[in-house]
Amino acid sequence: MTLMDVLVDFARTGRIGPLHCGMTLAEAEDILGPGRPHPAHRMKGLDIDGYPYSWGGLGLAITRRSVSAVRIHLSPGSTAKLPPLVLPDSESFAATVLREELVTALDAAGCEHEVDSVLTFGRQSSMVTRPADVCAVFSRPGRDDDLPHRDRHHLDVMHKHTA
Fold this sequence. Notes:
- It is a single chain.
- The mean pLDDT is about 85.
- Strand 3 (about 60-65) and strand 4 (about 65-75) form a beta hairpin.
- This protein has four helices and eight strands.
- Helix content is about 20%, strand content about 30%.
- It is an alpha+beta fold.
- The chain is globular.
- The longest helix has 11 residues, at about 5-15.
- It has helices at about 5-15, 25-30, 40-45, 100-110; strands spanning about 35, 50-55, 60-65, 65-75, 110-115, 125-130, 135-140, 155-160.
- The protein has an eight-stranded antiparallel sheet with strand order 1-2-3-4-8-7-6-5.
């Protein structure tokens, strides 16, 4: 399994392995182990909604103790940092994914996608997959980013939210 396999499967299904919106935080932690809660959770307690728990580049937003969003965050120019359940040996994979590469992989998998005009502006572009409604957000490297293909869009985050 490669990072691209994980991204395409997420785009097609809205799931990352057994992880999905609607499951409880307890179920997610049974699978992944304890997550690192957002500081607001630590300060205000478990009943605060919408703040993420994270396992490296994997994030789950928790609302009423259930998963309300699933997110994969990549740092272009570095290595992927995902839990072994999501991608074994993830740090052996480059976290630099060009928009064209993801589009080609989605097309090859028969995963429909369209431009998300709300999140496409300036140096950023976005697409939404169908029918899973997973959003992928890309950006061009900033002035201080040491990345190849500076004129092309790099994947920053893929996420799915409940309605």
